[in-house]
Design a protein that fits this description.
- By secondary structure, the chain is an alpha+beta fold.
- It has a single domain, classed as Translation Initiation Factor IF3 (2-Layer Sandwich), CATH 3.30.110.
- It contains three helices and six strands.
- The strands form two sheets. Strands 3-4-6-5 form a four-stranded mixed sheet, covered by helices on one side. Strands 1-2 form a two-stranded antiparallel ribbon.
- The termini are far apart.
- About 18% of the residues have low confidence.
Length: 111
């Protein structure tokens, strides 16, 4: 079990250990596809397969604080929970979720 306090909430989670000999296979995209940006953003952040309990929202918030109003951040996140949490975070902070394509998200910093 873990506890993590973020800028917006307290997250408590439990994670089971992977089965012995289990391997994670991600056949959704090749290395070349994941390396290339999907949007023409000012910055790119790759969260990989981090779920929200692993802290990508804190990292995204830190990057957004450094951007000027109107600049954009492209986020690559393969964990499906990020789609819900990122949309909610944008509503709470006033930033705009401009577009989403598969595991890519484009966020615009609030004016």
């Amino acid at each position: 079990m873990g506890v993590r306090h973020t800028e917006t909430n307290l997250i408590i989670w439990a994670q089971a250990a992977p089965a012995a000999g289990a391997q994670r296979v991600d056949a959704t995209a090749s290395a070349a596809e994941t390396a290339a940006p999907a949007f023409n953003a000012d910055r790119l952040y790759d969260a990989g397969d981090k779920g929200c309990a692993a802290g990508p929202m804190d990292e995204i918030a830190a990057i957004m604080r450094k951007l000027q109003a109107g600049q954009t951040l492209e986020i690559r996140a393969t964990d499906p929970s990020v789609a819900f949490d990122l949309a909610a975070w944008c509503r709470m902070t006033g930033n705009e979720l401009v577009d989403q394509r598969n595991d890519r998200y484009l966020v615009k910093k609030k004016p």
